What we know:
The complex is a heterodimer. Chain A is an alpha/beta fold. Chain A has 30 helices and 19 strands. Chain A folds into three domains: 8-281, 2-enoyl-CoA Hydratase, Chain A, domain 1 (Alpha-Beta Complex); 312-490, NAD(P)-binding Rossmann-like Domain (Rossmann fold, 3-Layer(aba) Sandwich), CATH 3.40.50.720; 497-699, N-(1-d-carboxylethyl)-l-norvaline Dehydrogenase, domain 2. Helix content of chain A is 51%, strand content 13%. Chain A has an eight-stranded mixed beta sheet, sandwiched between helices. A six-stranded mixed beta sheet of chain A has the order 1-2-3-5-7-9, with helices on both faces. Chain A has a three-stranded parallel beta sheet with strand order 4-6-8, covered by helices on one side. The longest helix of chain A is centred in the last third of the chain and has 24 residues, at 612-635. By secondary structure, chain B is an alpha+beta fold. Chain B has helices spanning 27-41, 66-73, 91-104, 128-139, 143-151, 163-167, 177-187, 192-211, 243-248, 280-286, 310-321, 339-350, 352-357, 380-383, 390-405; strands at 5-12, 16-17, 51-55, 81-85, 110-118, 124-125, 161-162, 222-224, 229-231, 269-278, 292-301, 331-334, 409-416, 420-427. In chain B, strand 13 and strand 14 form a beta hairpin. Chain B starts with a strand and ends with a strand. The chains are: A alpha/beta, B alpha+beta. Chain A binds chain B through residues 335, 337, 343, 346-347, 350-351, 354-355, 372-373, 375-377, 379-380, 385-386, 388-389, and chain B through 29, 32, 36-37, 40-41, 43, 73-75, 221, 223, 225, 228-230, 232.
Amino acid sequence: MDKxxxxxxxxxxxxxxxxGFDMKDKAVNIFTQDxxxxxxxxxxxxxxxxxLHGVIIYSKKKDQFIAGANIGDIASIKDPSVxxxxxxxxxxxxxxxxxxxxxxVAAINGSCIGGGLELALACTYRITTDSDKVRLxxxxxxxxxxxxxxxxxxxxKWIGLQNALDxxxxxxxIMAKKAYRIGLIDDITPEPLLLETxxxxxxxxxxxxxxxxxxxxxxxxxxxxxxxxxxxHLAKKSIIQKTGGNYPAPLQALDVIxxxxxxxxxxxxxxxxxxxxxxxxxxxCKSLVQMFQWTEEIKKTxxxxxxxxxxxxxxxxxxxxxxxxxxxxxxxxxxxxxKDVSLEAIEKGMSxxxxxxxxxxxxxxxxxxxxxxxxxxxxxxxNNKGFRKCQFVIExxxxxxxxxxxxxxxxxxxxxxxxIIATNTSALSITEMAGPIPNPERVVGxxxxxxxxxMPLVEIIQGDQTSEQTVSTVYAFALSVGKIPILVADRPxxxxxxxxxxxxxxxxxxxxxxxxxxxxxxxxxxxxxxMGPFELMDEVGIDIASHVGKFLGESxxxxxxxxxxxxxxxxxxxxxxxxxxxxxxxxxxxKKLDQSFIKKMGxxxxxxxxxxxxxxxxxxxxxxxxGNEAYRCLGENVVRSERDIDxxxxxxxxxxxxxxxxxxxxxxRNLENVKTTLTAYSAKYGKHFEPCQKLIxxxxx
Amino acid sequence: xxxxxxxxxxxRTPFVKAGGEFSFVSAQELGRVATAELLAQSQIDPNHVDExxxxxxxxxxxxxxxxxxxxxxxxxxxxxxxxxxxxxxxSGMQSIATGVDLIQNGRSHIVIAGGTxxxxxxxxxxxxxxxxxxxxxAKSKTFFQKLKTVSGFHFxxxxxxxxxxxxxxxxxxxxxxxxxxQILANEFSISRxxxxxxxxxxxxxxxxxxxxxxxxxxxxxxxxxKLKKIIQRDIGPRANQTLQALEKLKPFFDRKHGSVTVGNxxxxxxxxxxxxxxxxxxxKEYNLQPLAWIRSYAxxxxxxxxxxxxxxxxxPLALKSISKSLSSMELIEINEAFAAQVLSVLKVFKxxxxxxxxxxxxxxxxxxxxxxxxxxxxxAIALGHPVGTSGNRIVLTLAKELQLRNKKWGLxxxxxxxxxxxxxxxxxx
Lengths: 701, 429
């Protein structure tokens, strides 16, 4: 092994050069300046050795090929020209692989992501193992950039326009089988035979022609200009639909491909590099990268005490939340035992779990056996039998302190004395709930968000008695079921619902002040929320929204008095999505504002597109108010950092990720200015706008 | 017999008439539910189970060695061995017997012994001619060869063979199970009225057991994903069954002179059952209160034509080995394949001369039994007879009932297609 090489094991054997990626002191292989330098050094050696007849690039890390660029590097680039230069450097490296006169095989044994895949694309052949750890992905657009090491050029070449657009514009991963089907890889081999098989491919020699796996007709069609135009048009439409046009990266990637498809030359590489440069230096990229780094940081965190193992879980309540949690747990290989008062309720819950799995099965082409195996780990009962082995219980029943206390103290007698007892309450006090439960140090709040399968956040709430051991165990457990936990203090509404409660309350005041519901929802979606506040109330349920609003109003004196908008809905029995009537009329996945009812309530139904000024007022009254509340939470130590505010709001409510989260947004607006606006608003719209102490403090810095 | 083996607990799924709510539930899934729930409710660490044994007759093609499939799907660790036993209608009792042997000879300490059967999923099969035809077609290479093969096709090749009907026919004497019951009815002069009355009582007792919640103590509900429904009760016992309705049915197996009808025979049915067996040592270690102890079991053979008399053959064998007599049994389960068959058995119990006539050894241990202690919650005529399961089910029901009534001695006995009988004797401490 060469002394100068620290991250690549370079060996020559029987005329073949083996480049084994094995980054020193890192769990995964990534592209840093060091690895790039070493790789080019290796390639120079290969180039100057005329006796070689092939190169094999592989990884010595288990289940990991190369995971792409160093996120820290992406975060640090502030100048577009530096970004473009970085891209050019990478492009040159890939180019030098591609231009070798001897065949190069990428032997992929696991995740092959971003720059890793771009490297593989520059090789003559790509082969993978048959492991389900194999994942090929160009996730750049998810970080606000595009594949800049020639990925936009080589991928369409290998797999055709439509397949390439699908992978680059969504950034989604594919497994080995699919990759083989679309021609991205040339072979799938059992893991122990990977290098042997790579050698066989070297003996095939250089490629004579591109191995399009697509049907001839499609291949032909994609060469016709008008057909290409339609493809681009549809791709653009789908991006706009999914992102509301708030994310430039996929649009830029599309633009590069559109301008360069089938005519790769110096200009196309330069375009790719330039676009990457301007994207990587943009604040949106920084926001997305920051969010990614934070979630990665949380995923890698383990609290001080070693967690207790949890493999058997119990869920009390088979409603929407209970069965959502049950689905998650069984999917993540936990045993689940559901308890509810009636088999009818359980029947609905079991059907929900089965339906959720079934939808996944159809979408991801999973086997029926998979679903059956997963369902097989869910048992249910209406009595207290069979809980003795459960190490973890969570209740997801009606939000009523007395009922929850009773149910939890009942089950506490039937689980082991050190089993974690968790509540999925969205607002009630953990400390109070733990009161009557034996060994209250194991009682903890674990607040999942609806729909459980899609919302990545959980709030972990430590009551007064909750032990550090319990928090540590629950933290590790939340990570083990694939969720991102944040630690939150036991204050009403915790973090997310408290902020959302403020948001929804103010939205109703906005409507009362004469701004139309349509405009409010439109503006907030344009801002980047996944849905407008009134859509959200329909989704949550008008009754629940009203209940939570009242609860928070009672808990915090400064909260805006609940407007009387919700009462006419409740009186009319319009509960929102659950009975298809709220502010909107719901039909399946479609909804339409019920203007006639809104008119009857005496609210505005104007339907012009709102002008900038109105939009500004809507955003400021809603978002700055939320931000103020977030900083108040920080001041009260409800959360420990701005990180947790941002992660909580983005992962718990879908708050515009490209804005980097709520605190990030507030700072981008300059806290000093925000303070001024809030102060002005407090005179005009009510005391709840008064800037909180923490915000004032931070605005002086 | 040597040391007794404990029945710590047991559970079964509801029994559902074939072609009903369990049509799309496989035998392995039924077995899984019973086993998983039994494990969930017990204190036993699944790692300590030594063996899983399941009785099964139809042996689903997609679950060869169904015992192993059940064990894995029920979440038992992969290193625990599992196998499947078959003794036709007593397969579910054979699994217990095998478990008892394993525990008694010290190879195992904790055994899950069950039975499962989905008679809904017993397939239709193509005749042999069809498979020969397909084989020939595959061998034909040229177009003319193929044409020649195809021209030899006959539509009769497509006529399916109903595997279920084949299974219910004795391959040795050629009679269907119903016909063997009819033979007993004729030979032991069991009248049509007696049979219908017996069937009526079976329905009445089973309905009462369902309505009073007695069966809830041994039945665990099953979620049927296909229907998105939870089945929690047996579907078979009819609360509104009348004697008049039973009397109206035509004899089925001998249309002219017969007395056995579908009303006084058991329906084909789906269901599973599982018991947790344990050595005395482990019972003490875990500090458990078993439902009952298995003191003895026996299987015996007789003329396949008289298979229904099997319990009368096996019972004295089981009694003999622990030097007991039938008169000391306080509760008795006799699987109700046919009313005629159970009534014949009871008649033989009562009249030793008859026992001698059919050549039953140790007939002196037999005596008349009080009908009120026989099948106290009805039997297969009402509940149905999932063939691989029933032998397990009657032991489960008996064990629970000994516990509930605080009785000491109980007998579970079953007739076996092919001319055998099985009997198991339980004692509650």
